[in-house]
Design brief:
428 residues; alpha/beta; Rossmann fold; nine-stranded mixed β-sheet; 16 helices; 44% helix
Length: 428
Amino acid sequence: LKMSAMLETPELPAVFDGVKLAAVAAVLYVIVRCLNLKSPTAPPELIYQDSALARFLLKSCPLLTKEYIPPLIWGKSGHIQTALYGKMGRVRSPHPYGLRKYLTMSDGATATFDLFDPQSEHCIGEDVTMVICPGIANHSEKQYIRTFVDYAQKNGYRCAVLNHLGALPNIELTSPRMFTYGCTWEFGAMVNYIKKTYPQTQLVVVGFSLGGNIVCKYLGESQANQERVLCCVSVCQGYSALRAQETFMQWDQCRRFYNFLMADNMKKIILSHRQALFGDNNMKKPQSLSDADLSKLYTATSLMQIDDNVMRKFHGYSSLKEYYEEESCLHYLHRICVPLLLVNAADDPLVHESLLSIPRALSEKRENVMHVLPLHGGHLGFFEGSVLFPEPLTWMDKLVVQYANAICQWEKTKSHCSDTEQAVSGQE
């Protein structure tokens, strides 16, 4: 019996080693799946119509046809790209110096934007201003905006960055209204200021996420809004809030969790302006905005609940459906005549793939539109880097500036050809 027991005991560690090995294998499998390590790297998918402009862009913008290679360990996970952007913004972000401008709106609201001068001569030697609209509840002090502005300045662009109404913690509201999903009033006021102050400048319009919706809606609202505009770039927007609201309540790709986090941030911003928005002594407060709405705000767990109870009432919309329908750029995109670059990431956890049929259909019909869809990048991430640590500049930063440079060159070439034709015609 003793001999039998001695022979059996060595087998127990072997069993435990097998369990450990299985556990390690399981963890490695989860890591590979979560980090999406088996996903290939590839050039972005491009949807466009064959035209002289498209051919020029493909030659002038190498990033459109070159592989986008995210950081090896975590860069293929849209969730990590999104989380890293949301938590950190950018790494080693610079601190460009700008002047803050204040504009009084017709309803008493005070719009603010920051103005940054170019730090070098532009590639075509002309005066060009980027008018930039950040993402939801963002402003010029966010790190991803600072990084992009610094890079644009170094490429010869003046930059004007809108601070969403109510987003800056040190600026009080002067009317009972905050920024909303598609209100273009403040952005329009900033653009008009730039046009008036710099009568020779031409504009490059840039919008990130929610800002992409605002800039596209602004351009499509009126042909006059497109005057002196060279091009427009929209990054990571969802195009239709009405279509997006259903997908944003789903747990697929953790969208419901992201929805909760974004709603929590919005609640904090709204409550920081509680007196201006809900104060009893505020005679300008929308009649539909009541103390009951403030109570509902405290218990809201989604952006849709906040939009329904608070945001839509700033502009008098009778329902959430009406608010989302009217405020989305979906019905304005086809009115944009200037070159339009629509950028999304296939692994963006906030923008459901069904929404990407909108830019795809538009770019298949209109020669001025190109849709760019890299496999990776998350929501406003697009980090680059060799293995673990990302670089300060992202693929997105470089693409926007590269596209803007190409459009400037295109317009200069067209202008030169036109001048030559007129000179020849005059000699004849």
